[in-house]
Amino acid sequence: MKRILFVDDESKILDGIRRMLYSNRNQWDMQFALGGEAALQLCEAGTFDVIISDMRMPGMDGATLLGHIRDRFPSTARVVLSGYTDAALGARMLSVAHRFLAKPCTESEIRSTVERLCLLQDLVASTAIRKIVGKVSELPSLSTTFMHLRQVVLDRNTSTVQVADIIQTDIAMSAKVLQLTNSAFFGLAQKVTSLSGAVSILGMETIKNLALTSEVFRVLGPSSRMPQSVCDSIQRHALQTAAIATKLPVGRGLREITVVAALLHDIGGLFLASKMPDVFRSTATRAKESGCQRFEAEEEVLGTSHAEIGAYLLGLWGIPNLAVEAIAHHHHPTRIEHSEFDSSIAIYVANLLAHELDDSQRGSKGNEIRETDRACLEALGVLSSLAEFRELALQSRK
Question: Measured between alpha carbons, how far is 369 from 259 in angstroms, rounded to an integer?
Answer without folding.
Answer: 24
